[in-house]
Structure formats: C-alpha cells, structure tokens
Design goal:
89 residues; mainly alpha; 0% strand; 3 helices; elongated
C-alpha cells in the first residue's frame, strides 16, 4: 500500500509541474522575479494536489464503473432507445 501512495504522490507532482510549465509564457520579455515564479509553482502544485485528492475521494466512494467515470468527467453513454412495443392488429 505504501508503494501506491508513493507512486500517487509522484504522479501528482509530475502532473502539477507539467501544468505549471504549460501555463508559463513561451518567451517573456523579462523573466519574472524568483518570488513570483515560486508563488506560481506553489499555486499550481496546490491546485493539482487538491484536484487529485478530490478525484481520489470520489473514486473511493464510487459504487460502479459509471460512478468512477463521472469522477474524471467522462460523460455517461446514453442508453440505446427502447424498442417500441409491438402492436397487435
């Protein structure tokens, strides 16, 4: 179980740091000050961790596959339309 927790933490850190890197401008005119970069990284990491914890608790509470899919925003597939009842002539 401890290995799963370590792997989950690693995934969260990688995802959050990737998100932080994706949100930075490609070529800023002047580099932002260290404290501003640090604050942005901390915010992005915190947001990523909060999102992962929310999904984790949702999955723990899920009772079936559709509920797990809903935790990740996967739209539920619509049931096929019911066939019309046959009429006797």
């Amino acid at each position: 179980m401890k290995i799963r927790q370590i792997l989950m933490a690693a995934v969260i850190v990688v995802a959050a740091s990737s998100a932080a890197m994706a949100q930075t401008p490609a070529a800023p005119a002047t580099p932002p000050p260290f404290e501003a970069q640090k604050a942005m990284i901390i915010k992005n990491l915190s947001d990523g961790i909060a999102d992962a914890q929310k999904k984790l608790s949702c999955v723990k509470e899920a009772s079936d596959a559709k509920a797990v899919q809903a935790c990740f925003g996967v739209p539920a597939q619509a049931a096929p339309p019911a066939a019309a009842p046959a009429t006797k002539k």
